[in-house]
Specification:
Elements: E1 28-31, H1 37-47, E2 52-57, H2 64-74, E3 78-82, H3 88-102, E4 107-110, H4 118-121, H5 126-154, E5 157-164, H6 166-169, H7 181-201, E6 205-212, H8 224-228, H9 231-239, H10 249-261, E7 270-273
Parallel strand pairs: 1-2, 1-4, 2-3, 4-5, 5-6, 6-7
């Protein structure tokens, strides 16, 4: 089933001009890490557009009642599913559960990660390193593998992987208190997987990546690490960001909807949502007068 319907013809191509926006009504999405924060915000955005939702969670169960209440208010069909995504057998069971309940899977929001802050955890111990690799990188792989046949069967599947600018900047500059080495390495690995999976999924499945900077509930306000930073340290992070602020969940949710519904010719791409942190630091200087 192809959900982006032909609209007119394209004389310079194959005779088909695809509509710019996908109809999301009755699509089925699996959103990982949906109990709070960014995952929950993405789920609510999709629910408002008629998407039926499987909402994965594992910890943070004190937020579960609020999650259920907020999704119930949208009127969308949703299924909360508790799954330890570091358990590869449990991942298969999660996908089987989604298919048994909804009969299909169109969208995978691969939002699973664990990144310890140096300012919180201090020097690495092996367990912390292994946990960051197991969640941020390995779990994404096995969720994608289990979901792929169903996404291909939808005919117009979408995968959005989540990573971090830690994969670019690492433990450097103002971010040195925020990004651990293992998390940075895992985030860089996600980008490699995104490119490979775009090839594997095509043409039935588009695979893209959202690379996050400092966003509320993830490496900014609403996290334990952010509270441990001094006012000067938080100010330094904002000053290094071209837009001079940290991001909010709505910034991310809007980008997710764009990639799903309004970008039918985009796959294998990385959309960086960081307010310009990666570009920040040294300003662009004025043009010199030259000698001619």
């Amino acid at each position: 089933m192809v959900c982006c319907q032909p609209s007119g013809t394209d004389p310079g191509g194959d005779g088909i001009l695809w509509e710019a926006e996908m109809d999301l009504h009755d699509k089925v999405a699996l959103v990982l890490g949906a109990v709070k924060g960014i995952g929950k915000g993405i789920g609510l955005e999709l629910a408002r557009h008629g998407v039926r939702l499987a909402l994965n969670y594992f910890d943070w169960e004190d937020h579960l009642d609020a999650m259920k209440r907020d999704f119930k208010r949208t009127g969308a069909a949703f299924l909360p599913v508790k799954t330890d995504l570091t358990d590869t057998a449990a991942v298969r069971e999660l996908i089987d559960c989604v298919i048994a309940h909804f009969g299909r899977l169109d969208i995978l929001i691969n939002n699973i990660e664990r990144g310890g802050w140096p300012v919180v955890h201090g020097p690495y111990v092996q367990d912390q390193w292994d946990l960051e690799m197991a969640t941020t990188l390995r779990a994404k792989k096995w969720v994608f593998e289990a979901a792929l046949p169903h996404l291909k069967a939808s005919g117009d599947g979408v995968v959005i992987n989540f990573s971090s600018i830690a994969g670019i900047v690492g433990r450097s500059g103002p971010a040195a208190l925020v990004f651990n080495d293992g998390y940075a390495a895992a985030s860089r690995g996600v980008s490699m997987l995104t490119e490979t999976w775009a090839r594997v999924g095509a043409p039935e499945v588009r695979v893209n990546e959202i690379m996050l900077g400092f966003i509320e509930t993830r490496h900014a306000a609403g996290t334990r690490g952010w509270k441990l930073l001094s006012a000067a340290q938080r100010s330094a992070l904002r000053a290094h960001t071209l837009l001079e602020r940290t991001g909010v969940v709505a910034d991310v949710a809007a980008a997710v909807r764009f990639l799903i519904a309004e970008a039918p010719f985009v796959t294998g791409a990385v959309l960086r949502i960081d307010g310009g942190y990666v570009l920040g630091g040294d300003p662009a200087g004025p043009m010199p007068p030259g000698v001619l």
